[in-house]
Please model this.
Amino acid sequence: MTTPICDFVTEYSKKNTIRLHMPGAKGIIPYFGDTAKLDITEIRGADYLYRADGIIKQSEQNASDIFGSLETVYSTEGSSICIKTMLAMTCNRGDTVIVIGDTHRSFNDGCYLLGIIPVKIKNARFLQAALTRHPEAKAVFITAVDYLGALENVRDIAAITHFHGKVLIADNAHGAYLNFLDDGLAHPNKCLADLCCDSAHKTLPVLTGGAYLHINNPVYCSRAKQKMILFGSTSPSYLILQSLDYANSVISRPEFTYSLTKIADKVLEIKSAFGITTAEPLKCVFLSETDPAPIFEELRIEPELLLKSDEGFIVILMFSAGNTSEEMETVKSALAMLKIKPEFEITDSLIRKCGKSE
Model:
């Protein structure tokens, strides 16, 4: 798998060019060492994210091949900008979107900015009725994998959505890695979602902010960049672009899938041992009657979330192929010291009640 963005920037950084272009650091920030030399902007040959026809387009095509989409475009501003872009691609002001369950706040922001009317339903069981009641709806929006590790049945939702002639938009920010487990059959790209976003940085070896917008419906292939630029910075981070580019060379290898599968097996082992029922393969979400903070501090474990509630301590642990077997054993030892409440339901409303919003 080629890395055209990384190759270009690496060669440029070796030339010791007099940089009479942005950014103002001119490749020198002592704190960042040689990394600062890789921080460039849209100079000759570097391509332009929102009108890509060179090295960025080549790299995006590599990502598309890996994820099996018709087209994949990069975001250096996370899935948040992708969600707004997908709404803008499919809806006009005043249009209605059916929304299943809770959503990330960027969805609400997108609806507000674009004048879209969300019709929220509690779960997929009400989708058929909602689409019958709202034939004017342009799309169905789902969170395929949520912050608390719940998984939607995207394939069944897609079947109902398409039967009614609507577009299925999937927020898969937490599930990019699903493309590499069990033949990727749980990823929305394989489950017939028309549009899907992945936060690469959440679960893959990519810098914070790196994300993908996958397009699986040919109607929308020409619209993504022209809509994304409405929400995005005209100065995308080339460090993040390089990390997305470099990741292609990592995640396309069988070794990556092997490592990911091994970690997923370890996580399943941990969940089974402590009665944790989180559906998502690489996440443990549970309530502990024991305060985990001192134990985590002693063992140098930093969780995704540790929040005190009236019921106990809410804990979210996120794993990836970057974790080691030794780290997994340390986590197992830590959980053995806690009094975990099995099968306790942790909800978004409970998280918000405790002062945390995702």
